[in-house]
Amino acid sequence: MFDLHGKTALVTGSSRGIGRAILLALAEQGADVIMHCRKPCAAAEETLTILKRMGARHYAVYADLSDRDGANGVYSQVQKLGLSAGILFLNASVELRRRWTDITDEEFDLQINTNFRSSVKLLQLFVPEMQARGWGRVITVGSVQQKKPHEEMLIYAASKMALYNVCLSLSNILAGDGVTVNNLAPGAIRTDRNSEALSDPAYDQRVRNLIPMKYIGQPCDLAGIAVYLASEESRYMTGQNIFVDGGKGF
User: In terms of C-beta density within 10 A (0-12 exposed, 13-18 middle, 19 or more buried), how is residue 179 classed?
Assistant: First the structure.
């Protein structure tokens, strides 16, 4: 079960954090994997080194998804590699902590373009190839903030809810084409993105107190469900939202 040999997976925003954990898990199950990040960097090199040590067939593409042409850049690079992604994880995102009255136009655009608009464009580019093959897996990566928004992340939370709505719509549209569309919604996960905030012991404790399991998850806690959603075994499951959040979403 969960064998992904013969499948190619693209995970956006996968040089670190949750994206990296998903990428490595898919590679471990035999998928050819495409790492994406904004530009070459130390984290990307580390991820590629890990994949090489695993013996995984892997590739890298670079594009800034906050740019209008970012999604086109990803697609054209994948095409130049001679690849076609049958598994697409839309993980790349930007979250900015701001009081809602202080959000600037630039901050609004950065989050909406990266988290939502580019995801829709990537779907438009990659999904028709899945439909033509009669098989595909699309996994949008949402957030517990779909249900319990953070008071200082209004735009981030809204963008994740919008992406989930796309998941719901497309799951019905594509159901007859062998393409499933599901949403994976993490809760509080320790990554380098939130390491500064969680370095405050008082804030760390406050976050853990909001989680019924009383601890903050690790990126690897998303790996198992990610593999399942990418596999043949999830073929009868589409349009679903799955919280991996220690119970916080309930």
Answer: buried
Residue with tokens 């090199």: 45
Please name the amino acid found at residue 239: G
* DSSP code of residue 195: H
Is the sign of the CA dihedral 224, 227, 232, 237 positive or negative? positive
Clarify whether 156 is annotated catalytic: yes
Taking only the tens place, the pLDDT of each residue in 23-63 is: 999 999 999 999 999 999 999 999 999 999 999 999 999 99
The answer for 144, left when phi > 0, alpha when psi is -120 to 50, beta otherwise, is alpha
Residue of 59, 75, 156, 164 marked active site = 156
Report pTM.
0.94
Angle at 155 between CA 168 and CA 225, to 5 degrees: 45
Let me know if 6 is exposed, middle or buried by CB neighbors in 10 A (0-12, 13-18, 19+): exposed
How far from each other are the two terminal CA atoms of the chain, in whole angstroms? Answer: 30
